[in-house]
Design goal:
branched-chain-amino-acid transaminase activity, binds pyridoxal-5'-phosphate, D-amino Acid Aminotransferase, Chain A, domain 2, 2 domains, transferase, nine-stranded mixed beta sheet, pyridoxal phosphate, BCAT-like_N, six-stranded antiparallel beta sheet, 8 helices, alpha+beta, branched-chain amino acid biosynthesis, D-amino Acid Aminotransferase, Chain A, domain 1
C-alpha cells in the first residue's frame, strides 16, 4: 500500500505531493505544526492539540483553514487510509506561497500538509530501559509557547544528544532546565513530588504534560510547579519526559550521571501506566 498524505485538500500518494518552491514554510519557517498520537486507531487528546493549534495560528496571524470538526475528519481519514492503528499524525500549516518578502503576503492561502508515522508507543523498549539525556544551552527564540516549524535549535540539540549516545537533549537557560528538544521535562523529588516548570513563553505547553498533571493530581501525587536546575535534576529520585509520540518515558541519566539507582523509578512507571490507561479509555469511549 502506498503511503498517503494530505496536501491542500487532497489525499495523495506521497510521491505526488509537491509543495511549491516559494512556500513560506520552506523559505522562512513561517508556519505552525502539531503532532498527535494514535492508539488503537483513535486520536489521543485530539481536542487539546487542536486548541493549541488554534492558539499558535492566532499568535502568528495565520488563518486557520479548518474547524475542529474538519481537522478531526482529516486526521481520522488519513489514519484510516494508511491503516494506522498506533503511531503519530503530524500536520503543519504555513502562511502559503508568495514571492519572497518578509511581510505577510496578501490573499495567500495557507498550505496544509499532513502525514502519518507508524510507531509502537505502548510497547516501547525505551520505556523499559529508560533513556539518557544530555544538557545543552537553550538557543531558541522567546516565544517557545508557539508551536512553530522553526526547529533549528532543536535539530542541533537532538543531534548533539545522538552524538553523545543519548536520546534527548534538555535545554538549559540561566541554569534552569526549560524542556526537552521535543518533550516536556520533569523530575521527582526524594519525597515523591513531581516538579514541573510552570507554563510561560519559555516552554511549549505540552498536551501530554497537561493531561499527565491532571491525572497525577487525581492519583494523589503532589506537584511543585517551579523551575529546576540541572544540579537538582541530577540529585532527584527520578526524572522523566512526556510527549505525544512517547507518552511518558523514564530518564535514567543526565550528562552521564545516573538518576536515582540508574533505572526507571516507581513514580514514573506509575505515571506511564496511568497515562496509557487514560489514552486507552479515550479510544474505547470513541468506539
Ligand atoms: C519543545 C517541545 N516541548 C514539549 C513537547 C511535548 O508536547 P506534547 O506533549 O504536546 O507532544 C514537544 C513536542 O513536540 C516539543 O517539541
Amino acid at each position: 500500500m502506498s503511503r498517503i498524505v494530505f496536501l491542500n485538500g487532497s489525499f495523495l500518494p506521497i510521491e505526488e505531493a509537491k509543495v511549491p518552491f516559494m512556500d513560506r514554510g520552506f523559505l522562512f519557517g513561517d508556519g505552525i505544526y502539531e503532532g498527535i498520537a494514535v492508539l488503537g486507531g483513535h486520536l489521543v487528546d485530539n481536542e487539546a492539540h487542536l486548541e493549541r493549534l488554534e492558539r499558535s495560528l492566532r499568535e502568528v496571524r495565520i488563518p486557520n483553514p479548518y474547524t475542529r470538526e474538519e481537522w478531526t475528519q482529516l486526521e481520522e481519514e488519513l489514519a484510516r487510509r494508511n491503516g494506522l492503528t498506533e503511531g503519530f499524525i503530524y500536520f503543519q500549516v504555513t502562511r502559503g506561497v508568495a514571492e519572497r518578502d518578509f511581510m505577510f503576503p496578501e490573499n495567500t492561502t495557507p498550505t496544509v500538509a499532513m502525514f502519518t508515522q507508524a510507531k509502537s508507543i505502548v510497547n516501547s523498549p525505551a520505556a523499559e530501559t529508560g533513556i539518557a539525556v544530555i544538557t545543552v544551552p537553550d538557543l531558541r527564540w522567546k516565544r517557545r509557547d508557539i508551536k512553530s516549524i522553526n526547529l533549528l535549535a532543536q535539530v542541533l540539540a537532538k543531534q548533539a544528544a545522538k552524538e553523545a549516545g543519548a536520546q534527548e537533549a534538555w535545554m538549559v537557560e540561566d541554569g534552569f532546565v526549560t524542556e526537552g528538544g521535543s518533550s516536556s521535562g520533569f523530575i521527582v523529588t526524594k519525597e515523591g513530588r513531581i516538579v514541573a516548570r510552570p507554563l510561560s513563553n519559555a516552554i511549549l505547553p505540552g498536551i501530554t504534560r497537561q493531561s499527565l498533571l491532571a491525572l497525577s493530581k487525581e492519583a494523589g501525587i503532589e506537584l511543585e510547579e517551579r523551575p529546576f536546575t540541572v544540579e537538582e535534576a541530577c540529585d532527584a529520585a527520578e526524572a522523566f519526559l512526556t510527549s505525544a509520540s512517547n507518552f511518558v518515558l523514564p530518564i535514567v541519566s543526565i550528562d552521564g550521571r545516573p538518576i536515582g539507582n540508574g533505572k526507571p523509578g516507581p513514580v514514573t512507571k506509575k505515571l506511564r501506566a496511568i497515562y496509557i490507561r487514560m489514552a486507552t479509555a479515550q479510544r474505547m469511549a470513541a468506539e
